[in-house]
Structure formats: C-alpha cells, structure tokens
User: Fold these one by one.
Assistant:
Number 1:
Amino acid sequence: MTQRVLVVDDDRTVSDVVCRYLEHAGYDVTHVGDGVSALAAVATEPPHLVVLDLMLPGLDGLEVCRRLRARPDGVPIIMLTARGDEADRILGLQLGADDYLGKPFSPRELVLRVRSVLRRTGGEPATAPPDVLRDGGLVVETGPRVARLHGTELTLTVREFDLLVHLMRHPVRAFRRAELLERVWGWSFGDQSTVTVHVRRLREKVEADPANPRRIVTVWGVGYRYEPGDA
C-alpha cells in the first residue's frame, strides 16, 4: 500500500520541490497551501503523515498541529520551521509534533525523516519483533504500538512511544540526551532540547506526579534513566 503524505506549505517553490522528492521516493503526495485546507484534507482522507509549515496564512501551523493532535488517529507530523524560530519549534514539539526541519533544508533529508517516522508508525516494515513491556500498571505492546496505564490507553505521539519503549527496554541505564537523540530519533546531531521536551510530555502521561517522576528520572549531569517499579 502506498503511504499518503500531506504537504502543507504556502511557498510554492518549496512545496513543489518537496512534493517532487516525496513522489520520487514512492509516496502519494497531496499539497495544500493553508491551514484550513489542511484540516479539511485530513478530515476527508487522513494521510499517513503531514509535513506542516509553521508560517501559514490564516490558521498558522501551530494551531493546525494543535487541532490535529486533538484527533484520535494521531497522524504523525513533521514541522518545517525558519531557523530562528526556536520558541515556535519547541512549542510545536510540546503540542505533539513528531519531528522538525529548519529552513533551508535538504529535500533528501526530509525524505529520510518521513521514512523514519513512517517506519516507527508501522507505515513501513519494522525490524524489531513485537513484544510486551510491563512495569506494574504500565503495559506497552510494541506490535500494535499501544500503551496502557492501569488499563487506560495512553495517547502518545510517535516519538513519545519510541522513547518510552527504548527506556523501558534498557531499565536503570542512564542515557545522555545525545544518545537518545541518536537511538530514538536517528539523528547524529541536532538540538538536544527536543529530548527534554519529549521527556517532559511523556512524564505528564506515565507519571502519577510529573513534577516528582518515579519512572523516568533525571540523572543530573548525564541525562535520563528508566526506573522500573510496581506503581
């Protein structure tokens, strides 16, 4: 089955290049130039992934991201941002974007990012066998990509799910943020605040008290580790 990608960008030059590269990589690509059209397109035929520019006429990319995250299907989102828009980029990650690229960017890199996110969502063949990870009331099924806490299904983004799985598969081991960026995101370099934002969001979903985390703990001067228990 061909994966569908929705490109949302009002810059026709950028969108033409992006669409051409994604189509060449084998994706079924649809392009719209504003936020309202993007929401309508997702409602009509949900794509496997959305490439979303922040600077859009009318409804901006952050609001589009917020509304997409309110949907139950959890469509993955890769944001396109201007180099200097760090605050907007971090806010986008807090809203649930799965990845980002700063403009100007390499179209080839974007294709690789799209492929990476789709692989993690099951849109492309996964290499790891399905299994079930348990920590007291927290149960994570990696095959169907479902996480439950005390029987209630958690709404996790692609990166949040992958980060949780990675940490649970390596309990008690401390990981530097750079290590997590490479192992979970597949980036050999990048802004490590991405990891911090995702850890914060994940704690809000799996911790009884996110301000005093019991599962995903901070190792000062190093990074983070997962502490299994019976909560």
Number 2:
Amino acid sequence: MASQPNSYSLLSMKIVTEEEVIQNGYVMIKEGKIADFGPIENYNNDENLTEIHISESLYASPGFIDIHIHGLNGADVMDAKKDCIETMATTLPKEGTTSFLATTITQEKSELERALQNVNSFISNQKQNHVGSEALGVHLEGPFINKKRAGAQPPAFILEPSVETFCQFQSESGNHIKLVTLAPEGKNGLELVKFLSDTGVIASIGHSDALYTEVVEAMEAGAEHITHFFNGMRGSHHREPGVAGAGLAHPELFLEMIADGIHVHPAMVKTTFLAKGVDNILLITDSMRAKWLEDGEYELGGQKVMVENQTALLEDGTLAGSVLKMNDAVRNMKKFTDCTMQEAIRMASVNPAKRLCVWDRKGSIAIGKDADIVILDEEMHVKMTFCKGILSYKGE
C-alpha cells in the first residue's frame, strides 16, 4: 500500500463527515481519491477491492491542514535545505496532518529568498515523488511587521511593507505564497494589504500594534485573517479594542488559534469560540524544530530557544513558537470549549481547506476528494494516516 496510491476499502469505523458522524461506516478509495463512503449496510465490493478492517471504536477523520508551521523533528523551513521540507512532510502524518503551509520567519532578505526557492523546488517535485503530507504553499510570516510586537521574530531584519519586495519574494517562491502575516499600520501597509487581496493572497494581521480603527481600515483594504490570535498583537481594552478586540467584534475575520493552553489561556480560547463560532477559527501549531524531539536547546531565526515542559522560550522569556502537535490541538479545543469532536476537527480541516481554496479536493471526507484520512481514537491519538490514499503513518 505504501508504494503507490491504490484502491481499497476502509471498513467498520465511525466516519466524521461534514454533516454527521456515521457510526459504522466504510470509505472506498480508488487511485488515491475517495470513491464512495457511507454506512456499512450500503457497502458493495463488486470490484473485489482489498479490505482493511479498522474498528468500530475508532474514527475516520479528514486529514488536518496546518497553515502555520515553521518546523519539527529537527527541521525548519528557514534551513533552506533539500531535506528540511521533506522531513516535515514525512513526520506530519504522525499527528494527522496531511497538508501544510511551510512558514518562514523574519530574516535577512537573501535568507528568505533561499528558503522560498527551496519550498518552490519541493512543491515542484512533490507530484512525482509524493511522500506524506502535501506542501500547499508558503505562509510568509514577516518581515513586514511591527518591531513593538516582534515576539520571537528577529527585529534586526524587519522591513517596511513593500509591494515591490513582496513581488520579489513571490517570484522566488514560484508564486506559492498563499498567506502573508503583516502589520498593516506600517508605512505602505494598506497598499500591500490591497495588493495581496487583489492577487488572491490572504492578508493576515499579525505582529501588529494596530489600533482598532487601523484594523478596520485594513479590513476595508482586504485583510480578512489574524495570525496566532492574541499573540503578537495589541490586546483588547474596553476603550481601545485593538487587534484582539477587532478580531472578536468582526464576524468576517478568520482567526488562527494555538490551542496548547500556553499561548492562550483555555478560558480565552473558550471566549473566542463563543464569540466567533466554529467556522471562523483555524487551529494551527506554529511549531518549531523541537517538536517530536526531547527538551533542550534549539534555534529559531538564529536565536537560542530553550524547550522545557512543552514550552519554547527565547533567552529573554519570549514564547518562540510551540511544540504543539495538531491532534493535541484538536483534543485541547474540544476540552477547552466543550465543542463536539466534529466541531474541533472542522477547525483543523474544513476551515483551512476553504481558506486556502483547496476545498474542491481537501478538508472533508467527500466523493472525489483526495483520500487524506486520519484514523483516531476517542482521545485523538493518531492510529493511521493516509495521504492521497498512501498509508503514510501507522502507529502501535
């Protein structure tokens, strides 16, 4: 099964669909695509497909899509080496992630360009040599951000927003930049927001000190997304709502959420869920290279990072990304908000697929879509992950 996307049936498990959870179902896969699914009594194996019996206690979920991830298992997008994106792609199925945006960090222009060229090379070749999770493009986090809200982004390399500089980055990426995190209050910030919106790139407000009125101006220019909500932004005050208040007040804004209980207090995760509803939150990991490795000293953007007790910190105590796994984010979201399993999964699959305009082929278990399927237990432990029909991970 692992050598090529072939044809088989998954039988006797619960299926998390867009509308319901089918209690005892089947999914038929042909050449890496979902050919049919439904309750087991409707199953017909006329074509004598190989049958894989799962378990009625397990769930088949759509694969997760991480739109904000810097690295894991020793690799980082900014390494700009041939094997770094491949390491990400082959490791991500362990946490149920079947697609992702390779995310950069504020860095010297030439370093960013090397990283973008490297992602472009990987994406260009992955159709022929598909292994594991699919790189759907790039999330350019910085360098057009506010120094006051830099967080773990190296302030020395922050640039003023510039359409011309972005176009150079987009060219180096092979037109694969899908999302840009920027501070719209910077000089020429609104001009860049409008350009991104007009060219089909998601303009996301992040690492921003914008006032509420400046967020509204950015929305009018085309911003519709906020990066790692509550982190790296002007917080909310009852007389100055800031970026955080704007995110809660405007239903049209989509919010990324790091649901590790460290970046955002569980009570604020619940508050956000109650304010925004299930359709406007996207679960992300924002993970760095230490994920899947032991505690110790690591590096992010040329800065020393200490990882201990699931927390990654710069030497000055600033949070430096996470070591959060996506299946843990889904579990935490359910726990923090009392939402259903189906709703928690939706925030990691349906919503990012729609935001990235890949809903026609990803994000749900539906006929004709890629067979990106995760087999989970009740506690969100990943048992198996199929990427485009290929068994890419098999747990204990």
Number 3:
Amino acid sequence: MSLLAGKVAVITGAGRGIGRVIAEDLALHGAKVVINYHASAAAAEEAVASIREKGGEATAVQANVANFEEAQALIKTTLDTYEHIDILVNNAGTTRDTLLMTMNEEQWDTVLDTNLKSVFNCCKAAVRPMVRRKQGGRIINISSVVGLVGQAGQANYAASKAGIIGFTKSLAKEVGSRQITVNAVAPGFFSTALTEVLSAENKEKSKEFIPLGRWGELPEVAYLVTFLASDKAAYITGQVINVDGGIVM
C-alpha cells in the first residue's frame, strides 16, 4: 500500500518551486493533492497534468491565501471535492527584500500577509474538520533558516518565517491531544523563484558557508515533507527541521 493512500493534501503556493515538487511527491506516494495557486494558473494546471500523467490524482484551486475568506474557500472546496482533509502544507511565500531604512509599509505587510497570515488563515480553516473527523492530521509549515538566524535586507521575510516557527510550536500544543501533528521545515539555499534574483557570484560565494558545499535539490525538501505527512511520523510534533546542508549547525 502507498505511504499516503487515501489521504487528501492541500499545498499552498504549489504551482511551481518547492510547493510543486512537494505536491508531486505527495501524489507519488498516493495522496490526492489540491494544488493551490494565486496568480500562476498555467503553472498550476501544468503541475496537475504532470501528476495525472504519472497516475496520481490532483486538482488546482485558485485562492489568495493571504486573504482570510479565500483561504476558507480553499479548504471548503477541498472538503466539497474530497469530503475530508488530512494534510495541510503551508508553503505560499514571497519576498520584498530591502534594508529596513528603505522598507515601506506595503513591503512589510505583503510579506507578513503572504508568508505568515496565510498560515493562520489556512490552519484556522483546516483544523476544525480535522478534529471533527477524529482521525488525526498533519500540518507542515514551510519556514526558512532565515527565520532562525536573520538576514540583512530581509527583516520582513525573517520576521514572517520566525513567526511561523512560533505559530507551529503553539498550534502543536493545542491540537496534539487530537493526534494532529504540526511541524515546520526550514530550507536553506535552493533554486527557486525567490533566489533567482541572486547573482551567480553570490550564489557561488554562499556555498562557502554551507558545510556540504552545495545548494539543496528541491526533492530533498519534498522527501521530508512526505515523511512528516505520513503515519510513520505520528510521534513527531512541534519540531523545526532544517534542510540546509548544515548551514545553521
């Protein structure tokens, strides 16, 4: 039997990047996946097609999860389609990098709403149906090593990712008695849309600070998420697991 057979998973911001690879790996292991996207409809449908071609089950649902009502609608659509939700992966994220002295309110609010408020919005909508079903659940929040160590020019991003860590630990304590686990994954350097802005020189220089001497491959995050989403991780909750090549040791 597949690792996640019969499970229903929602992955936010899953049209591309880490979210898409997570969705594909969850589907590969038997989960029915809901690929959430905000604006990248073509990319989301491409991800759905890729999963279906490999024999998996997937559907794309548009929602700006930074908006409370739209996040609620995303979970409702999932319940209407599949009747239950077992796995929630909060992956939606963005950046607006600049030094604090030049950062404006919009740059702060956009990052905090997209990265952190979306986690509240989606968990708020998903936890109650998980509790009512009485079969546990898995919530995996994608944070970042920047939330642990900070980064110049990313006060907004670091605050949002650090907030996810505190949120994860608090919610894990609230829902643990219902056998719902809540964990955070903190990636280091990976090739995504958020790191495309870095110059080739800076990308190469960053490897000097990584004990393994390389950037990560996206499946290396997905494999961990799939494990945390499975019954094999039933006794792991409230944890922050770095996938960073040792950069935050």
Number 4:
Amino acid sequence: MIEDETIEEDGLDADANPRRKKRKPAKVNPKKLENAALYYLQRFSTSSENLRRVLMRRVYRSAHHHDTDPDEGAEWVDAVVAKMQTMGFVNDRLFAEGRVRSLLARGTPLRGIRMRLREKGVPPEIIDEVLALVEEDDGDVDFAAAIALAKRRRLGPFSTRGDRIERREKDMAALARAGFSYGVVCRVIDAETPEDLDAMKNDGGGSSGLGYFPDEF
C-alpha cells in the first residue's frame, strides 16, 4: 500500500494535460463519501484524521459548487471515518507503527518522525506509545536512524573509500544537516566498523566514540 504523504488525494495531476477540461466536483452524499473513502484506502495507508481531511476537502468543494451544507457534510464524514475504523480499514496505531519503521529506515531523526506523524493527525499518545515500542526493539531512535542514514549514504564505517579521516568532517556534516545531534553524529561516524555500531545499538546506543579517530582529531 502506498504512503499518502507525497500523493494528492485523487492520485491524479489535474494539470498534467492542459487540454483536459476540469470536471465540476460531484455533489457529495453519505454513499459517495463512503465510496471515496474506500477508494482512497485501497491505495493509501493513512490515519483516521488524515482520511477525515481528505473527505472534508470533497465536502468543501461540493459546498462551493453546489451550495450544499458543509456542516451536514462534516457529520457524514465523521460517520464514514468511524465506519472505516470499525471495519478495521483505518487504524491509527498500525499506521503509526508502519510510518515510524519506514521513516527510521530512511534515516529520519526522532524529531522529524514526530513531526511527520503529527502532520498526519496521529494522536500524541499513540506517537509516544509507538516510539516507546520502537526503542524497546532498536534502542535510541535517533542513534538507530543515524546508522540507517550513514549506511544509505555510505558514511563513516560504511564508506568503501580509503580516505575516512579526510572525509570525517564532510560525513559528520551530512548527518548534522539531517538533524542529528553532535553526540549521535560522533558515535556513528567515529565507529570503526558497522559491527561496532550494531554492538553499540544493542547496548542502548552507547555514550562515547569507539576510537577509530585519535583524540586529536
């Protein structure tokens, strides 16, 4: 299932073909909103709040073009979202777990993960619960994410080049720009081998460098 953060609600670019005349939005009713929700959920994984936002955009367009009542439409939307939750098609916790794992694998720092989940309308208590579970499995979330990003970009101990010392500052800057703290950056970049990073992660992230670079560096 596709993540919905980079794709518009209808999955289509209305301006892709300038010759195509834009159709007038359909007048909403409970059944059309339910069908729209099911169609959306077939393609995208999302939170209940984000699904509500998607459907409300349809309600507002209908109100603008057909002079329908947006308050009545909002009631229909609430009922549709509740039905999707009852049917198990929308589950904020499962959505958050999947999104956290995905962002962690990309090397997104903890602050960025929290921000992305808040943007999708995931309740704060669910965000805290999911991140606590991830920490049980992976230890320090920032440290695990920094390792993932270093591996993706072949930084520090993941580098296949022979000039690690010369590139140390550039590698550190790359992780710092991604949003990681100086302490996390040093632990990752100064690790001697990827295996040492795994050991540090299993020990809870560690608190000091591993000695690849002498103190004078």
